[in-house]
Specification:
The structure is a single chain. By secondary structure, this protein is an alpha/beta fold. The protein folds into two domains: about 5-240 and about 440-465, Aldehyde Dehydrogenase, Chain A, domain 1; about 245-425, Aldehyde Dehydrogenase, Chain A, domain 2 (3-Layer(aba) Sandwich). It is built from 15 helices and 22 strands. It has helices at about 35-55, 60-75, 75-85, 90-110, 145-160, 175-185, 200-205, 220-230, 255-265, 285-300, 320-335, 365, 385-390, 405-415, 450-455, and strands spanning about 5, 10, 15-20, 25-35, 115-120, 125-130, 135-140, 160-165, 190-195, 210-215, 235-240, 245-250, 275-280, 335-340, 355, 375-380, 395, 400, 420-425, 440, 440-445, 455-465. It has a seven-stranded mixed sheet with strand order 14-15-16-13-12-18-19, with helices on both faces. The protein has a six-stranded mixed sheet with strand order 9-8-7-10-11-21, with helices on both faces. Strands 5-6-22 form a three-stranded antiparallel sheet, with no helix packed on it. Helix 2 runs antiparallel to helix 4, helix 3 (about 75-85) packs across helix 4 (about 90-110) and helix 9 packs across helix 10. The radius of gyration is 23 Å and the shape is globular. Bound molecules: nicotinamide-adenine-dinucleotide. The site of nicotinamide-adenine-dinucleotide has 30 residues, from helix 7 and helix 8. Keywords: Oxidoreductase. One of its GO terms (molecular function) is oxidoreductase activity, acting on the aldehyde or oxo group of donors, NAD or NADP as acceptor. Belongs to the aldehyde dehydrogenase family. This is Aldehyde dehydrogenase family protein.
Length: about 475
């Protein structure tokens, strides 16, 4: 039985939660689920642990976090298998996610924000110091349960904050296993892990003893987090939804870019905040691109992520599976489906990779975040018009440009209203480079020095000399 981590103890939940393997649609494990009293215990434990952890020298915190990274690494295969079982992604992608999570932990365990002298001119000395905030809540979604959580825990804990982590209710197990590995290494209360069924988020994000909420999830929930945090003016980082455009320029080589765009749209079964969610292609390349993408979709191996050779696993949960059926209905009603177009006729939450052409910009599939392997391809006649259509979205997370002329693409990238634009690549997220969304894709940064600073208070000490 997977247990909660509260005040250094692995404990049963006041309730229990069944966890479904999306490749079968059947329950395969049961885990602890917290009630409100256990949430209160977790927050109280983190509050009690904060003064000591905050004043523990960085080198000692770093040593413990690096030791934790070693323990996770020693069990990385077990983590990866569990991740595939609860999340659905192919095992090599689960192993890759674990490798990324461990690398993020090591990166921030070695990154210290030291005091800096901002001015020292004989009249005055101004020093900037960075101090931890207090108890931080880390709330994560179900698409990358380990990597996205570690992007919060690693900078949060290395900075001297104490934390309460809460995963999505459909992928709680790897987070609970992570708590188990931390129990013997981190001092009691420094990290607490609770699980809910979408019922404790509101309390956590409004709790007076929580100083900051680091949230990754949908834009709708992000708005609720911001409202809940307002009363006590908590620090918030919001990494929210996206509807990224893949913009193909007229000099692109279809043989090169079609497989890359297909991968950008279908990795993790399209359940990536930064997935390519709509493609804009010049009229001259439209038909060949549609044909190439349709062929890739038809050839893709869709199966249980635990099976060797699987390229695309199931949709993570039933609710998202049902939502994707609505997008498929929209595609059939408003566009021309040239590959896929239906769930697979088998148990589990599988959707055939789907390519849709001749669909208007006004269709739901183009306007909203589908978060699945259903990709609309739109034609354009004028590049400025394509840029305007790509920007005509409430979202502003990422985007890609595909071309044989990267210099030309940089100019185009400068006009795309998002936090990240990749040219001829996708999902390259170096740990030392900040990442964050524009518009309703959120605000604040994760990763890089900026990401680390967000877990700290900047304090200015100004001395008359
Ligand atoms: P979600 O918003 O439904 O849930 C995210 C988390 O919020 C879960 O842990 C959930 O239990 C919790 N939650 C639910 N109600 C809450 C409340 N009232 N207060 C606080 N927390 C609450 O998102 P999801 O469906 O799990 O994830 C998919 C979404 O996440 C997509 O929109 C995707 O684009 C986005 N996402 C964004 C990024 C990014 O970095 N920008 C990364 C991954 C996923």
């Amino acid at each position: 039985m997977y247990q909660l981590l509260i005040d250094g103890q692995l404990v049963d939940g006041a309730r229990q939660l069944d966890v479904v393997n999306p490749a079968t649609g059947a329950v395969f494990a049961t885990c602890a689920r917290a009630d409100e009293a256990q949430l209160e215990q977790a927050v109280a434990a983190a509050k009690k642990a904060f003064p000591t952890w905050a004043t523990t020298p960085f080198a000692q915190r770093s040593k413990m976090l690096l030791q934790w990274a070693d323990v996770i690494e020693a069990r990385a295969d077990e983590f990866a298998r569990l991740l595939t079982q609860e999340q659905g992604k192919p095992l090599p992608q689960a192993a890759h996610e674990m490798g990324g999570a461990i690398a993020v932990l090591r990166t921030f365990a070695n990154m210290e924000l030291k005091p800096e002298v901002l001015r020292d001119d004989g009249d005055c000395r101004i020093i900037r110091q960075w101090t931890p905030l207090g108890v931080v809540a880390a709330i994560t979604p179900w698409n990358f349960p380990m990597l996205l959580l570690m992007m919060k825990l690693a900078p949060g804990l290395s900075s001297g904050n104490t934390m309460v982590a809460k995963p999505a209710p459909t992928t709680p197990l790897t987070t609970l296993l992570l708590g188990e590995t931390a129990a013997d290494i981190l001092p009691a209360g420094v990290l607490n892990v609770i699980v809910d069924q979408n019922d404790l988020g509101a309390r956590l994000t409004s709790h007076p003893d929580i100083a900051k909420v680091s949230f990754t999830g949908s834009t709708g929930t992000g708005k609720r987090v911001m409202q809940a945090a307002a009363d006590t003016l908590k620090r918030i980082t919001l990494e929210l939804g996206g509807n990224d455009a893949a913009l193909v320029l007229d000099d692109a080589d279809i043989g090169v870019v079609a497989p890359a765009i297909f991968q950008a749209a279908t990795i993790n079964a399209g359940q990536v905040c930064l997935a390519a969610k709509r493609v804009y292609a010049p009229r001259s390349l439209y038909e060949p691109l549609c044909d190439a993408l349709a062929q890739l979709a038809t050839d893709a191996v869709v199966d249980d992520g635990a099976k060797q050779g699987t390229q695309i696993g199931p949709i993570q949960n039933r609710a998202q599976f049902e939502k994707l059926k609505e997008f498929l209905a929209d595609a059939h009603a408003n566009g021309s489906v040239i590959a896929g177009g239906a769930p697979l006729d088998r148990e589990g939450f599988f959707i055939a990779p789907t390519i849709v052409k001749d669909i208007p910009d006004s269709a739901r599939l183009v306007q909203e975040e589908q978060f699945g392997p259903v990709l609309p391809i739109l034609a354009y006649d004028d590049l400025d018009d394509a840029i305007a259509r790509a920007n005509d979205s409430e979202y502003g997370l990422g985007g890609t440009i595909w071309t044989s002329n990267p210099e030309r693409a940089i100019e185009v990238a400068m006009k795309i209203d998002t936090g990240t634009v990749w040219i001829n690549k996708h999902l390259d997220l170096p740990f030392d480079v900040p990442f964050g969304g524009a518009k309703q894709s959120g605000f604040g940064a994760e990763m890089g020095r900026e990401g680390l600073e967000e877990f700290n208070q900047s304090k200015i000490v100004n001395v008359a000399l």
